[in-house]
Amino acid sequence: MNSTPEESTATFGAEEQAVQRSMNAVRSVVRALRINTRAIESKMGMSLAQLFVLQQLAERSANSLNELAERTATHQSSVSVVVRRLVESGYVSRTTSALDRRRLEIEVTPKGRQLLVGAPVTVQTELVNALRSMSEHQQATLADLLEQWLHNASIDIATPPMLGEEEHQGAHR
User: Domain limits at 97?
Assistant: First the structure.
């Protein structure tokens, strides 16, 4: 199939425009995360991921790390690290359920609730809410395309840490 020089230029221009739009979107997310992270660390004295989890728990306690991982749209091992830090700081309690000794109850402590007074909304909250406002088909399409993009760029997506949380020791691209 032969195309005219004008068609080739138009196709190339549209492709480059799509690449630019995609990269601008990624840069915008990274910038928003960086700004939100600095503001939260400065104002709250904790990581962006910790505040996000704390706010999620303030809305509703969790009966397990798996439930909390689902609510925060992350992996159980990633949310576990964040919860451990929140427990160590006294902002969250993690106790064995009185009804089922195999289950945990994870909830915000009074110290944690006090910290949340006047806390800013996290970028994660905004991003998750925006994704959940999309149709199921749009969510799946976006996820498929992002995963394919990262796969093509040789970026490992197995179990990344939560947004705004330090990378685990030894983990890398």
Answer: 15-152
